[in-house]
Amino acid sequence: MQQPNPSFASSLSSVVSQPVVAAFIAGGIAGAVSRTVVSPLERLKILFQVQSKGRQEYKMSVHKALVKMWREEGFRGFMAGNGTNCIRIVPYSAVQFGSFNFYKRFFESSTGSPLMPWPRFVCGACAGITSVTFTYPLDIVRTRLSIQSASFEGLQKEAGKKLPGMWATMKGMYMNEGGFLALYRGIIPTAAGVAPYVGLNFMTYEAVRGYFTKEGEANPSAWRKLAAGAISGAVSQTCTYPLDVLRRRFQINTMSGMGYEYKSILGAIRVIIAQEGLKGLYKGIYPNLLKVAPSMASSWLSFEMTRDFLYTLKPEDI
After folding, report:
1. So what's the pLDDT on residue 27?
2. pTM over 0.70, yes/no
3. Is residue 270 part of a domain?
4. Domain count for the chain
5. Distance CA 94, CA 116 (A)
6. What is the dihedral of CA 245, 251, 255, 261, to 10 degrees?
7. Which end of the chain is less enclosed by CB atoms within 10 A, N or C?
């Protein structure tokens, strides 16, 4: 077998060990791992979020809803939209972690020095907006794919007809719902929710991770990292969840059969509270909290493991 060119291996290891590049690669891997682990709960959360008042199809416990999903659609139903989600989450997570390492350079007193909580929040918020802007069309298509096979009354489905995939759905939105802007429908409530969510996630994770780190310990154990990731995810998701509901509603605002015709964010909030009560803004939070712990725990652990590996990568390892 031909050995890699030593100079090429040296250059490659030098590039991937750079903080921003290592964070970019590790973030992509972390995103794919975390989303696949919790795919059934991620889809169920979306089905709960888009179910308006009067619909009964998924008005049940998480367990019964998962059983219904499995009985009607099988394993394919559990994974519906996950392919698109992974295609979206890999660049999304990569850009998020990579841009966070880029932005934090502006707040560091010296290279590699730890940040205070609020600078971490600001860097995380900027990283969240950056990542969602780059990958939003894939997010809105993932939402459509997640609900198109669900048994919602009014959704037009023909027996035996193959449902459109990612590219067909994207093309259909572009051609029939307003061109390029259709692929960014709901971007404002999405960015408004993502910024504080990602900011809180980065800020809380570092604080909890530091709390779990024993005195004199350079690096906490994997279990402590998992716990820190689970706690940070639960805190950030709970605080920003109503904005996530708004994001999903706006993403299907023009989808035939779903019955939403929101004109603005404030208008949507008024309609949801009037028709569904305050709890309408928290629909799907239970399966969301069930998924966020393993999702964020696996995301942070896989991110740190991959990043640390890339930091120490040597030419002979390539």
Report:
1. 93
2. yes
3. yes
4. 1
5. 23
6. 70
7. N
